[in-house]
Amino acid sequence: MAEDLNTRVTLAAVIGAHGIAGEVRLKLFTDDLSPYKTLDAGGRTLTLKKVRPGPNGAVARFAEIADRTAAEALRGTELTVSRDELPALDEGEYYHADLIGLPVEDAAGIPLGTVAAVENFGAGDVLDIRKPDGKTVMIAFRPGIAELANGIIRADPAFMA
Fold first, then answer.
1. Structural domain count, the chain
2. Which structural domain range is residue 50 located in?
3. Residue 21's domain is classified under what CATH number?
4. How far apart are CA 111 and CA 30, in angstroms?
5. Are 115 and 153 in contact (CB under 8 A)?
6. Angle CA(81)–CA(33)–CA(9) in degrees, nearest 5?
7. Alpha-carbon distances of 70 from 28, 40, 58, 127, rounded to whole Å
8. Distance of CA 152 to the CA centre of its chain
């Protein structure tokens, strides 16, 4: 039986080849890819040999990718792991993937929308919220503005104007 896509988490995406020996440039969605020895690349298992910082993310070498042509063929491929391979979280921590799809309500429980995406531009997490009218708004994910409480994002509607 195929694994449910919801049980997989994307850790990186291949954005191109690096050099001629089969290395790939990655956009990372995690702080550290090195703990993961194997990654799924669209149904194909890739064995991580090494990863280092690189332009716009990281540069990685996989045992199965021997040359630039093979590396270029991976462009656009998401690299995933099973959800149960992720480290356990401490109290108050969350994975971005867990926030996507959560309902957003004000303090009185009035629906304000749904979390469509989570971004981080360096100053903290930002929620991209799809409002009931279909428009989207981005708000800071921080106390007093938007907070996670019992599987619901409680947001101050003044920040969603």
1. 2
2. 5-85
3. 2.40.30.60
4. 31
5. yes
6. 25
7. 20, 16, 18, 36
8. 19
Q: Are residue 10 and residue 78 in the same domain, yes or no? A: yes
How do residues 133-142 score in pLDDT, each as one tens digit?
999 999 999 9
Which has the closest alpha carbon to 118: 108, 110, 129, 109? 129
Nearest to 50 by CA among 21, 88, 87, 23: 23
Q: Which structure tokens are listed for 22?
A: 């089969």
For the chain, what percent of residues have pLDDT higher than 70?
Answer: 96
What element of type H or E holds 72? helix 68-73
- Per DSSP, 95 falls in state -
90: in domain: no
